[in-house]
Amino acid sequence: MALSGPEVEKQVPAEPRPGRKLQSWWSLAFCLCFYGFMSQMRPGESFITPYLLGPDKNFTQKQVTNEITPVLSYSYLAVLVPVFLLTDYLRYKPVLLLQGLSYVSVWLLLLFGSSVLHMQFMEFFFSITMAARIAYSSYIFSLVPPACYQRMAGYSRASVLLGVFTSSVLGQLLVTVGRIPFSTLNYISLAFLTFSLVLTLFLKRPKRSLFFNRGAPACAGASPSELDRMNLGQVQPTGGKPGQLPASWRDSALAHMLRELGHTARLPQLRLWSLWWVFNSAGYYLIVYYVHILWNVVNPTTDTTRVYNGGADAASTLLGAITSFAAGFVKIRWALWAKLIIAVVTVLQAGLIFLMYKTSNIWLCYSAFVLFRGSHQLLVPIATFQIASSLSQELRALVFGVNTFLATVLKTIITLVVSDKRGLGLPVRSQFLIYFVYFLVLFVAYVLAALLSGLRHFRQGRHQPLPPAQELMSPVQEQAVQDGPAPEDGVWAVGEQPEAKA
Questions:
Q1: Which of 110, 128, 245, 265 could be 102's S-S partner, Cβ–Cβ 3.0 to 4.6 Å?
Q2: Distances (CA, A) of 200 to 4, 43, 80, 92, 125
């Protein structure tokens, strides 16, 4: 029997009750975090580029830069939307299995592939693993009660970061101290990934998902979602089965979601941080994709024990975790200062990219990348909160999906023009000069936007002394502070912050 509107509204998510249920929740949390940790154990990942350029595979730098690596951007764009939809439709676990199988395929091709085509297929399978990362973050929220979302997000993010850090440190120790060749390191990675794939088989498959497999609107203590609230009275038509939604309802809800998305897009802070997500993320991932090739140019050593890529990746992961954590304690009036702060961080990133382009010292190059990655991770949780806090759960997923897709399109266009042999086919150093100019243009745009915003603020007569610094506030809360109370509506409610991983 469908619940009435008031009955649904009165349901409040409850904390796990003491006893067996609490013990069951902790067991589930441990299993999910252990899987998240093990899925990141790829100690050979930091050394893929020197492995491809070394005597094991003997590819040329031009082949790796202009023929192999660009395939990652193209294939990621091709698989992103299908994997996103399949993740929800198949209820997460099958996509996690696909991710595990793709990881195993990547390392099998690395070990036994011998041609450029084999390595291009390797990049294709790697793009599937990247697109499938959303499955893990969505999967954990489908299994735990809403009251545990915040804690579970923290635990899962910590387990993933710890896995990345441990993997990088382990890889570096095996190469530098253990003097293990890259090929053996890749066999060790394959063993870890096979174990992770076996763990996936034992994961519980949830009965519901966000869009395609919704089930009852409010079950197991879950609060009603935006889709449920949009047309609650039509959830169960006469003669229909519980949990089944007619096509007309879905069409109506989707149209309503798109209309609400149009309304929320008018929020200045939402627009600003979405644009930052698109443009800065595209540049960030281009740097991450090609920096290992640059390191090999700066330090073209044949002594594998003097390659410290794993240490650089571990340090950048650690700094990124610290800056992400610190961002939650930043007290500032984001509606007024966001553009200026983004501009400062962007020009810092531009300077670090120029340093990586210009230097011939590998330690300076390593340090610049660590700082570059840490500065990006500083703004990620802030952008996540500013975007997510003014949206319902479904709109939130839609906005992040659109932002990621647009960033991927932009990244693919830049790759085609700058990196691909069918475009300019530039060497990696010249590419970093292009990326420096790209971030410099973004800096100029952010500065101009900050100046215009300040001028507008001045002309409106709001240049009186600012109130004391506030805790991190959502765009809706910022607007309420400036313009008075906003109408209460489900779309404008502050929701839980999703996990954002870069």
A1: 128
A2: 38, 20, 21, 11, 18
> Are 216 and 72 a contacting pair, CB within 8 Å?
no
Our measurement of the distance from residue 91's CA atom to the centroid of its chain's CA atoms, rounded to an integer in Å, reads 20
CA 373 to chain centre: 13
How far is it, in rounded angstroms, from Cα 466 to Cα 335? 12
Give 364-379 pLDDT, tens digit per residue.
999 999 999 999 988 9
Q: Dig out the tokens for 437 from the structure.
A: 């100019």
In this structure, what DSSP letter does residue 46 have?
Answer: G
The structure tokens 């290992």 sit at 292
Token pair recorded at residue 486: 């906003």
If we measure between CA atoms, which residue out of 193, 196, 203, 195 comes closest to residue 92?
Answer: 203
Distance CA 334, CA 473 (A): 7
Residue pLDDT, tens place only, 233-285: 444 444 444 444 445 544 545 566 666 666 666 777 888 999 999 999 999 99
Q: Using CB atoms within 10 Å of the CB of residue 274, give its burial: 0 to 12 exposed, 13 to 18 middle, 19+ buried.
A: buried
Q: Which of 209, 214, 250, 242 minimizes the C-alpha distance to 90?
A: 209
The gap between the terminal CA atoms of the chain, to the nearest Å, is 43
pTM of the predicted model as reported, rounded to 2 decimal places: 0.79
DSSP state of 496: P
